[in-house]
Structure formats: C-alpha cells, structure tokens
Design goal:
Layout (H helix, E strand, L loop, with lengths): L18 H11 L2 H14 L3 E3 L25 H10 L2 H6 L32 H11 L4 H12 L11 H9 L9 H11 L12 H11 L5 H9 L1 H5 L3 H8 L3 H12 L7 H4 L10 E6 L2 E6 L7 E3 L1 H6 L5 H38 L1 H6 L9 H8 L3 H7 L4 E4 L2 E4 L7 E3 L5 E3 H13 L9 H12 L5 H10 L5 H4 L4
Length: 485
C-alpha cells in the first residue's frame, strides 16, 4: 500500500499550563523564606509592582479587606485600573489573622545598620584554612609546605587522611609543577601535622587518632594504651568482662579507663565540618484561647504590594506599543497578588482542617496524634490531594507543643483490638518514653516494648515494627544501650 498525505479533523481536550497557573502552583509549595525571595525578585523585575510605604498603611474593618472571590477578567482597562488602585497586600492577609496589624516604627538605628549586609558577616574558618595557617607559621621548609598542602587536600570532613604516604608522593610528582618527595618525607610531615590543632588530625584511623592524643597528653599507662590500640572494637560492643579478666582489673578500674578515653576526640575535624543550624520561621501560629484554638498566619517581613499609581495614570498617555507592555505588566502584578492571596487562603483552610482533625494533639500532645492522610483534609476543604501536598511542603506551624512541619500531622494508622486506630507518631512517642525511663543496666528489648504497647494500647504490634520505629528515632538496640556501671 502506498504512502499518502491526508488532512483530517480531530476534536480533543488537553490541559494547558499557562505561565500564570504555573506561578500559582509554584507559590503553594514555596517555604516562607523562598516566598520572601520570590516577592522581592518580582518587585525588582516588574516596574508596576511596588511596596506600599509603611506610613501609608491604615487600619480598615475586616469586612472591607475581603478580596474578590469570583472569577474576573482583566481585558477591560478600567477594571484593571480599579483593581490596581485598590489591590493591597494588607487586603490579602487581613481576613486570615485574628490579630490587628500594627505599624511598628523604628525608634532608633544602630551604626551597624548603615553598613552593607556582607560587611557585617565573617566567614567561619574551614579545617583546610585552619591547618594551612598553622603549617605556614610552623617554620616548615618550602618542600614541607607543599607536602602539607597536599596532605590537607586529602583530608575528609572528620579530619582523617584518606591517602597513603606513597599516594601523596605520587600526586606531588604528577602536579603541573612536579615536586619530588619520598614517602619518608611525606610520613614525617604527616606525623608533624598530627600535632596541629585539632589534635589527631591527619590520622589514618580512629586508633591512630586516639593514640596521638594520648601521647600528646603524656598518658602513657600501658593498660590505657593497650585498650586504645587493641580493644576499641570490644569497647564499642561493650565486651567489658573479658577485657577486665585479661588485664586483671576490677570493673570500677575499667570504668576509670573508659572515662579517660571518652575525654578524647575521635573526630578532630567535626567542629569544622559541622553544618550551620537551620532556623525555622513558622508560617502559622496556633494559640489556645478560652478553650478554642486561634490560627494566625505569620505576616512578619511580608511586604504590602500594590500597583504603582504613577504608572496606572500614565497608561492613557502612552503609545500603543508601550501601552501593551504596561497592560501586560499590570496583569502580571494583579495575578501575583491574587496568587499570594490564594496561597494564604489555602494555607489557612488547610490549617483549620488539621486543627479539627488533630484537636487532641493540640490539647494533650503527641501521644494523642491521630492517623491522618491527605485525602481526609482534601475532602474536608473540597480541594485536590496534590494541592494539600504542595501547601504542606516546607511549611511549619508553632503549636502549644512545639514547632512542627505540617506533614508531621499526616501519619499512618495502627489498628487496635477494639477496631479503632492509633497514629504511628503516637506509638513512636510512647516507645521513646519507655526507653527514656528504662533501667540503663537492664534496657528494654524490642519484644518487651511490644508487650508494653499491647498492654497499654491493646494493639498487636510485631517486634520488627518496634525495631523499625526505634531505628527511625535514632535509638540504639538494647544490647548497645546497656550500661554495666
């Protein structure tokens, strides 16, 4: 059969993701800090969008702050101008807060505030820069400095050397500017750098690291040195009795040696490799007032947006080409404010639904956390599950029982004998409580914890499930928790 071209009509439907719709979806899943960055970026890129001056902010009744709820089109220039003049950031957040907005003036300004942000920061020294500084002040020769730099380049985040002396000598030889060094010369520099601060850095393994520290502190007790050099694995696995028999010492004497070893640092580079703490700014606050829970969205730092009146009034006087651009920027600005309003409205409704489902948690704590899935909240507020998933991503809420991510309230269920259910997070909290109050000399086994849960909750939970929850909490097994002293 021959090939031929044909024309035919076909009717089909497809979803077109417009840029505006993509922006609205993206706003849902942005964290608070990401949202602030995004709004600031839009303020820079859109000349029609501006932040309303703080001194012009006035209090308005809540009924006057309601944002439009029906679908509107912006093809009519007069409608666009009217929206631009009345659309304010304050309007979008007002009805979602139970506290009045207060304009806080700056009473004073410290001299530091006149400086740039970068000028007020100092970089935390890295392990590499700290060691390089000591190396160059140690009076080492030029060759030793080059060897030392190569050694520093082969350290991991904990300060351990991940290359042999032979490998480092070979690396020096194949550098753009070849450096000739023997393995003995490299080993000599390694031993010298192990005495740098932090003590024990550039060691090849924990045993060598601890031995360097014992030598530097003049702790030359033969038993102590032997415990570090030969029995670190036995100490890790708490095989204390065979060790006490071998050295013919009592358990009390062995404990004294262990106390000394615990004062040493097996990870000398950890103080430099540790990540900076991540501070969380809650998106929502939930307070209890007169037996009821009040939800307040966090508005701190969020600018009040409006379309610049100057540009709105100048639209009529511009030519057709500029007028088209101005109208496009106006639509973009108004759509952004509508999207921000929709984001806050969705976040408020989702939090309201979570409070209804998890009221016992807000009153009594994590042990009363109920099973909850995205579909429950989606059905409650008549939204799609994907919307609930996006709005709960990277969002935090401050509750009477601590700050939690919104996804914390969604957890799987365990069936009880009476047909009811209990949340997995509640079970984890109970396991943590049992282990926290156990006898350190007789720690609770996973099987014993399963029996205790069955007695208190009437739930049939397997030992392996207890082990899975315990591991998720970062708690060691009973054999590793046991203390004999």
């Amino acid at each position: 059969m021959g090939l031929e071209l044909r024309q035919q009509l076909k009717l089909s439907q497809q979803l077109v993701m417009t840029p505006q719709l993509q922006q609205a979806i993206k706003l849902l899943q942005l964290s608070r800090f990401e949202l602030l960055d995004m709004v600031q970026q839009e303020l820079l890129e859109n000349p029609l969008l501006e932040e309303k001056p703080e001194e012009e902010a006035v209090e308005r009744p809540a009924e006057e702050q309601a944002a439009p709820t029906k679908e509107e089109t912006y093809n009519d220039e007069s409608v666009e101008q009217d929206l631009a003049k009345t659309a304010e950031w304050e309007s979008y957040l007002g009805e979602f807060s139970s506290t009045a907005k207060q304009a806080v003036g700056r009473e004073y300004e410290t001299p530091e505030e006149g400086m740039s942000f970068e000028a007020r920061l100092s970089a935390k020294p890295s392990l590499e820069s700290h060691l390089d500084w000591q190396l160059r002040l140690s009076g080492a020769s030029e060759l030793d400095v080059q060897i030392g730099e190569q050694i520093i380049g082969n350290l991991d985040g904990l300060g351990y050397l991940r290359a042999t002396a032979e490998e480092i000598a070979d690396q020096l030889e194949h550098m753009p500017v070849s450096v000739q060094a023997t393995s003995a010369e490299v080993e000599s520099v390694i031993l010298r750098m192990q005495r740098f601060d932090p003590l024990g850095v550039a060691a090849r393994d924990p045993r060598e690291c601890l031995l360097v520290q014992l030598d530097a502190y003049n702790m030359d007790d033969p038993i102590l040195v032997s415990l570090v050099s030969e029995h670190l694995e036995d100490l890790e696995k708490r095989r204390y009795k065979p060790i006490a028999r071998k050295f013919k010492i009592s358990m009390e004497e062995l404990k004294e040696y262990l106390d000394v070893i615990q004062t040493l640092d097996p990870m000398p580079g950890s103080s430099f490799a540790g990540s900076e703490p991540q501070y969380v700014s809650p998106d929502v606050f939930v307070y209890e007032y007169d037996g009821e829970f009040v939800i307040v969205l966090n508005e701190e730092g969020l600018p009040r947006l409006q379309v610049s009146p100057y540009y709105v009034d100048s639209v009529k006087t511009t030519n057709s080409k500029d007028k088209e651009y101005m109208q496009d920027r106006m639509r973009s600005a108004v759509w952004l404010m509508k999207s921000l309003y929709q984001r806050q409205r969705t976040l408020y409704k989702v939090m309201e639904s979570i409070v209804r489902f998890q009221e016992e948690f807000f009153r009594h704590g994590v042990k009363k956390l109920k099973p909850l899935i995205l579909k429950d909240v989606a059905d409650d507020i008549e939204m799609h599950e994907s919307t609930i998933s996006r709005i709960t991503t990277s969002k935090y809420v401050s509750t009477p029982h601590g700050v939690h991510e919104l996804k914390f309230f969604f957890n799987s269920a365990l069936g009880l004998d009476d047909g009811s259910q209990v949340g997995s997070e509640s079970v984890k909290a109970m396991i943590k409580g049992y282990i926290g109050s156990e006898n350190p000399r007789k720690p609770l086994s996973d099987e014993k914890i399963a029996e205790m849960l069955k007695g208190e909750l009437q739930v049939n939970i397997a030992r392996r499930t207890v082990a899975k929850y315990r591991s998720a909490l970062g708690i060691l097994s009973s054999s590793k928790r046991k203390q004999i002293f």
